[in-house]
Backbone:
């Protein structure tokens, strides 16, 4: 066969193949681009929906907390329970520090005994607060006290600790006695009546320890 005629014969076929190839590539590229765009748009829609949901949840939560706080502010039972829980939590921190860092056997033994009583009180108050849907108050003054005491060692630390625990239990007794005349719920009144003798015993114990450490 004449070579020139051969190339003239196959040239149209070659051009058609190239055209088909280009068409396929263009179609594939266009399809990939469209799918990618759709996925990106879908992802952005999901992100926007998630952000909107999170905002709504936060607003609902903030509103609920505000309503609870307003309710508590006018309720002597909730005021007592929420504050007593927070005070008790901080005293537990100090009692645990006494067990760990105290240098006298007497101090450590007193701290262990009081810790048992304060953990029992914590459980009773927490159960009541949970039942009534009272929010937690987290004012951490015990951490600041311990930080201030960190420069003291030995008997100086013991004396400072005993002084703080004495003052703390004086406040506890006063708060519980005042609350006894103000709270409405008989369950809380009963808790106060059952707890006051223990708090008085703790106070006497701390006064004696404080005097012994002078």
Residues:
């Amino acid at each position: 066969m004449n070579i020139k005629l051969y190339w003239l014969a196959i040239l149209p076929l070659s051009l058609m193949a190239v055209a088909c190839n280009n068409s396929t590539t263009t179609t594939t590229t266009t399809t990939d681009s469209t799918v990618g765009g759709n996925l990106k748009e879908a992802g952005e829609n999901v992100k926007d929906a998630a952000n909107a949901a999170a905002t709504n949840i936060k607003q609902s939560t903030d509103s609920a907390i505000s309503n609870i706080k307003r309710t508590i502010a006018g309720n002597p039972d909730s005021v007592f329970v929420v504050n007593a829980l927070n005070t008790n939590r901080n005293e537990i921190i100090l009692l645990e520090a006494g067990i760990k860092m105290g240098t006298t056997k007497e101090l450590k033994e007193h701290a262990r005994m009081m810790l048992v009583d304060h953990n029992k009180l914590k459980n009773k108050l927490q159960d009541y607060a949970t039942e009534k849907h009272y929010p937690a108050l987290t004012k951490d003054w015990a951490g600041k006290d311990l930080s201030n005491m960190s420069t003291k060692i030995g008997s100086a630390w013991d004396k400072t600790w005993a002084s703080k625990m004495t003052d703390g239990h004086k406040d506890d007794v006063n708060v519980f006695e005042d609350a006894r005349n103000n709270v409405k719920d008989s369950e809380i009144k009963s808790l106060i009546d059952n707890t006051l003798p223990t708090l008085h015993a703790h106070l006497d114990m701390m006064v004696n320890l404080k005097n012994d450490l002078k």
About this structure: The CA atoms of residues 89 and 156 lie 24 Å apart. The chain has two domains: 1-73, 76-212. The two ends are 124 Å apart (CA to CA).
